[in-house]
Amino acid sequence: MTTRTDDAAPVRPVSLGGPLIRFRVAAYATGVALLGLVVEMLLQYVFGVELPQFVKMIPMVHGGLYLIYLLLAIDLAIKARWSMKGTLLVLIAGCIPFFSFVMERKVTHKIQAGAKL
After folding, report:
1. How far apart are CA 65 and CA 73, in angstroms?
2. CA–CA gap between residue 76 and residue 68 (Å, rounded)
3. Contact (Cβ atoms closer than 8 angstroms) between residue 87 and residue 3
């Protein structure tokens, strides 16, 4: 009695090009919106500058972009099979100024090298 292992279909690697590009765009957009939010808060609360109404919408813009960032990061994490720790670090990166830019670079290098986060 022999068992054949060659009957199993070969596992095709998942292409991460599309999810990675979407994540990168979301990371940059979230990072820029967060920097805008920090500037807006400094002007308003530290320096007491009365800002126009459209500037006061920056928190909502950042919040919306952050939700998109979360969804795209989770999508990439599932497809790239990241660890829980790596996934949580990437998810938190959208809340810390400049950290989303740093994590975007790290994620891009890891994905292109075929390594897990």
Report:
1. 12
2. 12
3. no
Tokens 């967060």 — which residue?
34
8 Å CB contact between 117 and 110: yes
| Cβ proximity of 33 and 94 under 8 Å | no
In the structure encoding, which two tokens stand for residue 26, read together?
Answer: 């979301």
93: closest CA among 23, 22, 19, 43? 23
Residue 104 main-chain phi, psi, to 5 deg: -60, -45
Averaged pLDDT in 10-residue chunks for the chain of 117 residues? 52 76 97 96 93 91 97 96 95 94 95 88
Please say whether the beta carbons of 6 and 94 come within 8 A.
Answer: no
